[in-house]
Structures are given as structure tokens and as C-alpha cells.
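Encode chain A's predicted structure.
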Amino acid sequence: MSPRERQLALVTGAIVGVALISNYVVAPVWQAWREQGATLRDLEGTLEGERGMAERLRALAREREVWSAQLTPPPGGLVQELVAVLPEESKLAGFEPESVDFVGSSPLGNDPDSPYLELRFEVDAKVTLAQLQTFLQRLTRIGRPLRVDRLAVIPPSGKEGASKTLEVQLSLVALTTAGERRGS
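Encoded structure for chain A:
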């Protein structure tokens, strides 16, 4: 073999060797590098999403603490507290209720697994419109989650109509935790 043929064989061998190394070593490494980069970008996106969810979880935990503080049971239980507070508030509004009754409790939204309960109270009274307004305003200030579920106003009939006294049947609902109700 002549020196030129040897040189040509050597160059051809080098080219074939580089091609083999490129196909079987460099290309798979390059492909794996690109795939790992894509995987890393996906993981970074997932991490950002999880950080957002973790922040939302912390915000919900803070919100739950605020609600739990508002729903913390008094020493005697919420039912006893409201049965005592409702007549006091009515007296401060200028009337005496005929009755204040605890009707019962039910899970919030009728979901048996709900951690919250709705406590229902009925108040019957004869009041003027101004006294009713004052009473309802005072209920907003008692610091407990309480809402009017039903309000029935029966206007006076006959000679009583001149006195402007109304018969009122008021249904109130208080929100509490299930554990708080058990403690009452």
C-alpha cells in the first residue's frame, strides 16, 4: 500500500470513527441533555404551581384561625349564650320577647360531614317597627356569626292597629363548629 493510500485509509478511518462516536455517544448524550432540560423546565413549572398552592394553603389556614377564634365556644356553650343574649338585646331595644327558644341544629348545607352546624332559634314578640329595627341592628354587633333566616310580621287588627304594635316571629340561625355544639 502506498503512502497516499495509507493516508487516505487513515483519514477515512478517522471520519468513520468520528461518525460512529457521534452517532453512538454524542447524539444520545445530546438527546438526553435536551430531554433533561425539558424535564427540568416542567419541574420548575410544577414547583411554582406547588409554591402557589402552599401559599394558598397558608392563607386558608390563617383564615381558618380567624373563623375558629370567632367560633370559639363560651364557657357555657353557644346555645346558652345566645338564649341569654337574645333577651338582653331585646330589652336594650325596648321590648320583652314573649319567647326565645332553641329549635335545633343541623349540619351546614345539609352535609353530614360538615365541620359546621347551624343552630336555630325562634323569637316571638310584640314590638313597634322602630324596636324591631333596633333589635336587628343590635344583633349585628354581638360578635357571633348570626343571620335572620325568617321574619314573619303580623300587622295588628282592629283597634290595636292604632298602637302600631306588630306581632313578630323571628327565626335566627347561628353558625358554629360541630365540636362547639357537642360542648353545649
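DSSP finds four helices and four strands in the chain.
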